[in-house]
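Crash report, auto-generated. Payload:
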Amino acid sequence: MIYFPEEVVEHIFSFLPSHSDRNTVSLVCKVWYEIERLSRRAVFVGNCYAVRPERVVRRFPKLCVLTVKGKPHFADFNLVPPDWGGYAAPWIEAAARGCVGLEELRMKRMVVSDESLELLARSFPRFKALVLISCEGFSTEGLADIASHCKLLRELDLQENDVEDRGPRWLSCFPDSCTSLVSLNFACIKGEVDSASLERLVAKSPNLRSLRLNRAVTVDTLSKILMRTPNLEDLGTGNFTNEFQTESYLRLTNALEKCKMLKSLSGFWDASPVCVPFIYPLCHQLTGLNLSYTPTLDYSDLTRMISRCVKLQRLWVLDCISDKGLQVVASSCKDLQELRVFPSDFYVAGYSAVTEEGLVAISSGCPKLSSLLYFCHQMTNDALITIAKNCPNFIRFRLCILEPRKPDAMTNQPLDEGFGAIVRECKGLRRLSISGLLTDKVFMYIGKYAKHLEMLSIAFAGDSDDGMMHVLNGCKNLRKLEIRDSPFGDGALLGNVAKYETMRSLWMSSCNVTLKGCEILASKMPMLNVEIMNELDGSSEMEENPGDFSKVEKLYVYRTTAGTRGDAPNFVKIL
Amino acid sequence: MACLGFDETELRLGLPGGGNDAEEAARSSGKRAFEDTIDLKLKLEQPAPAVAQKDEKDEEEEAAAAQNVVHAATPLLSTPAASVATGGGNMKRSPSLTSVNTAVLPDPEKPRAPKAQAVGWPPVRSFRKNIISVHSQKGKADDNSGDKSGTAAFVKVSMDGAPYLRKVDLRMYGSYQELSMALEKMFSSFTIGSCGSQGMTGMNESKLADLLSGSDYVPTYEDKDGDWMLVGDVPWEMFVESCKRLRIMKGSEAVGLGQSLYQQTSMMYCHLASSHS
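Recovered output after restart:
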C-alpha cells in the first residue's frame, strides 16, 4: 500500500462529488476516516433522528454546510400529526457549541422556532445562507434577527414554509452595511411588505440574482425594483393583477427588456390574463417557468405564453392547461426536462382537463423529459407503455390519478402493465409514485426491474403481503418506502427485517400491520426506531393488552444511532 | 334580541329528516364540506357497522343542515356550499375509505371505490391547496374580502379526549356552518347539537342544560383577549379575525365556563327556534 501525506489524501478527497463517496472513503481505514472527517465541509443528514447532533458536530468540526431533514414526506399531506417532532433547536444549539464556522444551513420539514433563529443569527459570524423548505414554528420576528445579525448573508430562501406573520419590520432590519445578498425568496410570507424597505434593500444589493416576492408586493413596486436589477436571473413576481398605473406599466416593460439574464419566472399571484403579454419579450430566454399558483389563466393564456418559450427546461402548471395545451408544450419546448401538472380541483370526482393523452403528447414531443409529476383523472396501460418507450430517461416519475384504485380508463384493467413498462424501460429510475388500480403484479415488476429505485410511494394499491415483499426483496437501492391505505400486514413487515437497516425509513399508514407485528420488529432490530401513532389515545390500551392484534394506524420505522428520541409527544409510542 | 338577527351567527344544528330536494342540496353542501375537510378529517378507528350508522346520521344531518341553507337568506346561498354543482354522485362514504381498516381488497369486478375524500388525498401540499382553494372561494363568494384572501388564518383545534391537535385555516370557510361541518367530519364523534327528534321548537332552557351537561360537545374559541367564548356569538368575519384557537369541549365542561356562555348559547338556540317556527 502506498502511503500519501495527509495533505495529498485530503486534496484527493476534495474532488469527491457526493456525500456517499466521502462516506465510503471514510470507511477504508482509521487514517482515512480521520482525514476525511477533519476536512469535510458539507454534511447531509437525511433524517434528523438518525443521529445525535452532538455526534455530527464532534465528528466534523470544520462543518460549513449542514443540511437536515425532519418529518417524513407524508407530513406534507397532513398525515403526520402536529407536534410529532423534527425540531431544529438541538441542531442549531449543537452547531453553536461545536462549529462556529457554520456558513450554510438547509432544513426541510422541520420545526424552527424564533429563538433558534435568533441563536443562529448570533452564533455564526460567517453565516451566509439559510434555506428553509416546508418548515414551520417561526415568525417574521425570527427573520428580523437573521436580517439584523447575519452581516455576510448571501442567501435567504424560504420555500413554502408556514410563517407566522408579525409584521413587515423584518425586511427593514438588513443593515446598510449588508450588501452581499444574492438570493432572497420570501414568497411564502403571508403578510404585508414595506415597499420602501424592499426597494432600499434591492438598491444596496448589486449581487442580487434571485428574487422571489410574495403576494403583497404590487406591480408598482415590482416595476421599481426591476429597474435596479438588470442582472436578475430568477424572478418570482408579486401580485400580478391588472390594477396598476400607466407609469408602472411603462416602467415594467422597460425594466423587463433590460433583464437579459432572466431565465426563470414564478409567482404570478392572481395574474390576470391582461398581464401575460408583458412577459412575451422574456419568453425566448426562459428555462424555468412556474405558473402553478395561477388558476386565473386558462388554456389559451398559458399556451400563448408557453409556445414562445422554446428553451424551456422546467415547467410547472395547473391542469387548466388541458391536453390541447400540453400538445402545444410538446411541440414548442423540445428541451423540456421537468414537468409538473398540478390539480386545480382537489375533489376526487371533480373535473380535470388533462388525461393520458396530454402526457403521451409530451412524451413524444419532449424526449429529454426526466422528471415528472402529473395529476390527472384517468390513465391507460397503452398510454403508459407508449410514454415509457418515448422517454426512457425518466429519473423521477410520479403519477397521481385522483380517484383511488381507478382502473385503466379504456379496458377497466389494473394499471400493472403500464407501470411495469415504466420500470422496465426507464433503467435509471430513482423515484416512483404509483396510483390507480394496482395488484401485486405491479410490485413484482418493480422488484424485478427498478434496480436503481431509491424512493417509492404507494397508495391504495396491492392485494397481499406479496406485493410489499417483492419491493423489499427486489429493490436493492431502496432508501425510502412510504405506503398508505394498502393491504400489507405483519407478514410483509417482518418478511425482510434486515432490509430496513439499509434504508432511511419506512412509513405505513392505514395498512394491516398490528401492534404485535411492530413489537416483533422492534425486538428483532434494535438499531431501528419503531414509532407508532394511533388516533385514539392508545397508550393505556396497549399496556393492558400486550398481545393485542389491533391495527396500527400509523407506523414510522427508521434506522438510527441515536436511540429512542426524547422529544416524542404522547401520541407517539416508540417500541 | 334584535341584535341577534344575523344569519351569519346562526350555528346550524342537525335536524333530522328532509325531503328529496334537501337531499340534493345535501349532496352539494356535503361535497363542498368534503373539499374543505381534505386536510381535516380525523380517521377514527371504528368498527364497520358503527361507521355505516355514522354515514347515515351524517347524511341526515347534512340533509337537514342543507335544508337550513336552502331556506336561509341570500348571503349564505352565495357561499360555495350552496353554489357548487352536484356532480359528485354518491356521497355515501364507504367504510373502506373512512375507517382505518383497508382490508377490502380491490376487486376489478366490483364497482370502483366511491368518490369520497380520504385524509391527505390527493397528495398536494397545504400551501398549494390553500392558494388554489382560497382563490376559487374568492371567485365564488360575492363579498370583497379581497385584500385578506391571500392570508391564511390557521388555528389549532383540540377536542377534549382526542389525542392530538389539528390545524384549521379559518379562511377556507365562509360561514359557521361550513366550519361546523368541517369540524364534525374532523372529529366524527363531535355533535354540535343533536336536538333529537323534537326539533327546534322543543328547545328550552332545561333541554339546553341537558344538552350541555350531556356527552355532546360544544365548540369554544379563545379570542385575541385570551377569553374563551362560545363559537357563534359574533359575525363570521369578526370571528375569523379574533379567533386564536379552537377547543371542542365536552358539554359538561362548557357549563362550567359560566353563565354568560350559557346565556349566549340559549339566546342562540332561541333565535334558531324562532327562525324556523
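Post-recovery validation: The first helix of chain B runs from residue 20 to 36.
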